[in-house]
Amino acid sequence: MKDMVRKAGLEKEILVDSKACRTDEIGSDTYYGTKNKLREEGIPFTPRKASQITVADYDKYDYIIGMDSENMRDLSRITKGDPKGKTHRLLEFVGESRDVADPWYTDDFDATYRDVAIGCEALLKTLTK
User: Fold this and answer.
1) Relative to the CA of 72, which of 22, 38, 55, 84 has its CA 20 to 30 Å away?
2) What is the CATH number of the domain that holds 110?
3) Which residues, at least 6 apart from 69, have a Cβ–Cβ distance to it below 8 Å?
4) What are phi and psi of 64, to 5 degrees?
5) pTM (whole model) above 0.90
6) How many angstroms separate the CA atoms of 13 and 95, rounded?
């Protein structure tokens, strides 16, 4: 998403950040398989240390995107039921009610990349309307 926003020249209008819904990945860098796929696609990335989403983040951002049903359950808990309607599952933006393919279980980073790419393209269209 950051790369799409950058290519669209919207870095000053759209802030993209990544947060964890749970504590098990706090401090971790991007998963090696994800890095390999991003390199393959020519998408730049920087080292990161995962941090957990907070109630302050809920107040700060207009959209909070989850990849799967488990993320959405966690986000509902963290945001106390999403009273402002800010949380969305990524593939909702392409009219699908399914989870992004999870490479943690499948090791299929191509499928995950396709899901994330179409979801982010549709989300960017929504944001620029």
Assistant:
1) 38
2) 3.40.50.2300
3) 89, 99
4) -130, 120
5) yes
6) 25
Average pLDDT per block of 10 residues along the chain, 129 residues long = 97 95 91 95 93 95 97 96 97 97 92 98 97
Beta-carbon contacts of residue 64 (< 8 Å; ≥ 6 apart) = 53, 57, 58, 75, 79, 86, 87, 88
DSSP structural state of residue 64: E
Report the number of distinct structural domains present in the chain: 1
DSSP string, 83-104: TT--EEEGGGGGT--SPPP-HH
Domain residue limits at 13 = 2-127
Helix axes 109-127, 32-41, angle to 10 degrees: 70
Q: Which two tokens stand for residue 4?
A: 């799409």
Instruction: Name the maximum alpha-carbon separation found in the chain.
Output: 39
CA dist., res. 72 & res. 89, Å (int): 7
